């Protein structure tokens, strides 16, 4: 029985940030034989895969395939009926995320952007970033203390990455749809996550914005591992290092984009149903 960890500092001391490892073969997250049963209905059945460090790993599949449920499992919003998810499986002390509190998983460096943008429309881009950086701090600290220089530098560098540095004083509500999505990605990135999960980041975007989102993800993966759910196959082709195809809660196939797209079963069950 593990003793309860009560603070972020204590948790990070136990799970120190990794030395920068660039080996692509290293797994950062192992999803081990996960099944989820909702009142007799299996949303996921025996999902078993590894997410490698500094890659962009896509989960694709038709509506209801279980993609969002899988992200819910990783961040422990949903409890699996069977199986578990292990973070840093190659480390001396791997962390079993299953059963942990959701906020502790965020502390450990796993960020998530939900599909619907949730920026504060009446605050500026910069104020949204400051709030995100101070998430989890005490309320008085958030209100009273001005951000430190290194925090502002971090905000600046992050906004550069998503192409919003020129708009830091804009009211977030005045941004275009795509820009709001990029701001939300930036609000995750500014917390320097090790893994970022994005549920349909290009939803509602036109082709140029979708392409730019892809280029942003390529930039992000230099420092971070990116897990993406997406339907747009051009976007998948543009950036995916690995693709896992889910169908009715099971892994149908996984591999490179080329391998997956060439597979007749994938074409039948997914691409034939509006994937492209
Ligand atoms: N809390 C829940 N209770 C019961 N059924 C659920 C629950 N959450 C998800 N499901 C069901 O599990 C299945 C998988 O849902 P999920 O949202 O993971 O699919 P998805 O692949 O993300 O689909 P989409 O592409 O439409 O977003 C669906 O049939 C859904 O209705
Ligand atoms: Mg979904």
Summarize the structure.
Helices cover 34% and strands 23% of the residues. The chain is of the alpha/beta class and 276 residues long. Adenosine-5'-triphosphate binds at residues 38, 43, 61, 63-69.
Verbal overview:
- By secondary structure, the chain is α/β, with parallel strands linked by helices.
- It has two domains: 167 residues, Rossmann fold, CATH 3.40.50; 76 residues, no CATH class.
- The chain has eleven helices and ten strands.
- Strands 6-7-8-3-9-10 form a six-stranded mixed sheet, with helices on both faces. The protein has a four-stranded antiparallel sheet with strand order 2-1-4-5, covered by helices on one side.
- Strand 9 and strand 10 form a beta hairpin.
- The longest helix has 14 residues.
- The radius of gyration is 19 Å and the shape is globular.
- About 2% of the residues have low confidence.
- Bound molecules: adenosine-5'-triphosphate (ATP) and magnesium ion (MG).
- Adenosine-5'-triphosphate (ATP) binds next to helix 2.
- The site of magnesium ion (MG) has 2 residues, from helix 2.
């Amino acid at each position: 029985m593990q003793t309860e960890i009560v603070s972020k500092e204590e948790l990070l001391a136990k799970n120190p940030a990794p030395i920068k490892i660039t080996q692509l073969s290293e797994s950062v997250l192992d999803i081990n034989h996960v099944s989820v049963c909702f009142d007799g209905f299996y949303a996921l059945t025996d999902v078993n895969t590894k997410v490698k460090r500094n890659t962009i790993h896509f989960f694709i599949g038709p509506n209801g395939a279980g993609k969002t449920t899988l992200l819910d499992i990783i961040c422990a919003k949903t409890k699996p009926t069977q199986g578990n998810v292990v973070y840093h499986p190659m480390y001396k002390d791997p962390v079993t995320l299953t059963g942990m509190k959701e906020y502790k998983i965020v502390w450990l460096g796993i960020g998530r952007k939900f599909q619907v943008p949730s920026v504060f429309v009446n605050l500026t881009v910069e104020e949204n970033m400051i709030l995100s950086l101070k998430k989890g701090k005490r309320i008085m600290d958030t209100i009273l203390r001005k951000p430190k220089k290194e925090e502002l530098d971090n905000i600046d560098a992050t906004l550069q990455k998503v192409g919003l540095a020129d708009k830091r004083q804009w009211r977030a509500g005045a941004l275009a749809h795509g820009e709001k999505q990029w701001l939300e990605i930036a609000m995750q990135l500014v917390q320097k996550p090790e893994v970022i999960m994005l549920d349909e980041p290009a939803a509602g975007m036109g082709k140029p914005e979708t392409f730019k989102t892809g280029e942003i993800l390529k930039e992000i993966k230099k420092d971070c591992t990116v897990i993406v759910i997406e339907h747009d196959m051009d976007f998948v082709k543009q950036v995916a290092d690995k693709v896992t195809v889910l169908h009715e809660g099971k892994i149908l196939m996984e591999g490179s984009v080329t391998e997956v797209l060439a597979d007749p079963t994938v074409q039948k069950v997914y691409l034939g149903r509006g994937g492209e």
